[in-house]
Amino acid sequence: MKRACIPRMRALSLFLLVLLAAGARVPPSQAAADAYLAELKGRANSLALHEDHYWRILLHVRPGIAGTRSLVDDPRFFLSPSGKTEPAAELSATLDGLFDNTADPPYFCRFPARYAWLARSLEIDPTRIPRPPPCPEVDNILRVIDGQSVAMVFASGYVNSPASMFGHTFLRIDSRLKSPLLSFAVNYAARTDPADGGLTFTFKGMFGGYQGFYSVMPYYDKVREYSNIDQRDLWEYSLNLTPDQVRRMLLHLVEMKDIATDYFFFDENCSYELLFLLDAADPEARLTETMDRYWVIPMDTVRAVIGAGLVDNVVWRPSRAIQIRHARSLLPDRESDLAVEIVDGAAPAGTVLSEPIPDATKARTLDLAALLAQYRIAKKGMEHKDFQERFHAILSARTRLGPVEEVAKPLPVPAPPEDGHRSARAYLGGGWRGSEGFLEAGIRPAYHDYTDPPGGYTQGSLIEFLSGAIRWYPEGDRFRLQQLDLFRIESLDPFDPIFRKKSWKVRMGFQTREFTEEKDGLVTFAEAGIGGTIRLREGAVAYLLGEVEGDFSRDYHGAYRIGGGGSMGVLAEPVRGWQIWLEGRGIWGVMGETGEGPDLSASLRQGFRIGRDLSLKADLSWSVTRHVERTEGTLTLNRYF
Amino acid sequence: MKRLLLVAALVLALAVPAIAAPPAGQLNYGCGLGATVFREGNANDSLLLQLVATFLNGLCSNGTFGITSGTSDCAEPKKTASIDRLNEFAYKNLDDLARDIAAGNGETVTTVAVLLDVPAESRPAFYRNLQASFTEIFPSPTVETAHVVDTITKIAAQG
Question: Which chain B residues are within 8 Å of A394, Cβ to Cβ?
Answer without folding.
Answer: 102
